[in-house]
Amino acid sequence: MLFETLAKTGHEEVVYCHNKDAGLKAIIAIHNTVLGPALGGTRMWPYATEQDALNDVLRLSRGMTYKAAVSGLNLGGGKAVIIGDPGQDKSEALFRAFGRFVNSLGGRYITAEDVGIDVNDMEHVFRETEFVTGVHQVHGGSGDPSPFTAYGTLQGLMAALQFKHDNEDVGNYSYAVQGVGHVGMEFVKLLRERGAKVWVTDMNKAAVQRAVDEYGCEAVGLDEIYDVPADVYSPTALGGTINENTIDRIKAKIICGAANNQLATDAIGDELQKRGVLYAPDYAVNAGGLMNVSLEIDGYNRERAMRMMRTIYYNLGRIFEISARDNIPTYKAADHMAEERIEAIGKLRLPHLGVQAPRFQGRSGR
Ligand code: NAD
């Protein structure tokens, strides 16, 4: 049954990690290592069933393959999930036990933070394995990726504005930003610095207030964000917000934000294309965080990271060109671009050599 699923999804390896004493139940999924070691965060979540955890890790790890490939990184796609409540079930032993499993994969999988996991948890993982990114700056790590994700999103946005309007001046347009968390707050700051009109919403009232007071955004209700007359809709909170119920309400001609899995279904992506709405594919837009942590592998350098963010502009431009040339929706163009790169680069490699373990440089303190 599992093999049938793996045959469909194309995964290379799924590892069930169990340590009774530490209370660890985790799954690591390595989707594809053709371009390099599989890098992807670890999510801690109280999944209702083990099947839910498996489904999530399979979906997320596959997404990482596409994100890395379309972003021009020498990385494959992987992800891990730990079954547990991040509010109650965390312990040093749990994360060290998990770190040992990561280490046992010899660098085929490199982990990082994801939902429910923070840099302190990663400290424990880092005690057991070097195959972890997003470690604290004191160890030569890259710290919080959110500002980079926001800056990368700005690059994607400029590419979208350029393609749609032949004018990438961010300040000339208005924006509906849904979610002002770690990424969203940085993003609205960048927009406002460029003089743009910005509407914001968030269920966290304090965050909304900060966006209003510090950055001069206009607050609207959670549901009203779909109705504001913005030129660009930026989902920066949850996935699936572009769906049957919202598509008629969103008047923006560009959709560009940092949230993962923005389209509820592929059919919604097809419909956006029909309606002439330019959708900037989420995984290409929000790759800044991944690019940033990837630089930890050969010695983190902030300037290099900022330069790398700029490639998002060119990647998006290429996706829009492919979409126009082949008359396909942008989400399909992004998938094609990722698949073509995996195929082309994969042909250059001798399969029996396998994945070379990354050599982390410039980190200390384990
Ligand atoms: P976060 O948890 O800091 O922020 C999310 C914000 O969305 C919170 O303030 C939350 O209150 C708000 N929110 C939740 N539900 C909402 C709703 N229904 N309406 C309005 N607001 C709502 O998360 P983040 O790190 O800022 O990430 C935001 C999105 O970007 C996520 O989808 C994440 O997967 C994606 N992303 C983040 C990074 C990164 O570097 N942090 C990288 C790639 C993708």
Descriptive overview:
43% of the residues lie in helices and 14% in strands. Strands 1, 2, 3, 4, 5 and 6 form a 6-stranded mixed beta sheet that branches. Strands 9-8-7-10-11-12 form a 6-stranded parallel beta sheet, with helices on both faces. α6 links the parallel β7 and β8. The relative contact order is 0.13. With 366 residues, the chain is an alpha/beta fold. The protein folds into 2 domains: 123 residues, Leucine Dehydrogenase, chain A, domain 1 (Rossmann fold); 192 residues, Rossmann fold (3-Layer(aba) Sandwich). It is globular. The structure holds nicotinamide-adenine-dinucleotide (NAD). The site of nicotinamide-adenine-dinucleotide has 24 residues, from α5 and α6.
Write a brief caption for the model.
This protein has 366 residues and is of the alpha/beta class.
Chain-wise SSE layout:
Elements: H1 2-9, E1 13-19, E2 24-32, E3 38-39, E4 42-45, H2 50-70, E5 76-83, H3 92-104, E6 109-110, H4 119-128, H5 146-165, E7 174-178, H6 182-193, E8 197-201, H7 205-215, E9 218-219, E10 232-235, E11 254-255, H8 266-274, E12 278-279, H9 282-285, H10 288-294, H11 302-309, H12 311-326, H13 330-348
Parallel strand pairs: 3-5, 3-6, 4-5, 7-8, 7-10, 8-9, 10-11, 11-12
Antiparallel strand pairs: 1-2, 2-5
Strand content: 5-15%
Number of helices: 13
CATH architecture descriptor name of the largest domain: 3-Layer(aba) Sandwich
CATH class of the largest domain: Alpha Beta
Rg on CA atoms, Å: 20 Å
Percent of residues in helices comes to 40-55%
* CATH 4th-level superfamily of the largest domain: NAD(P)-binding Rossmann-like Domain
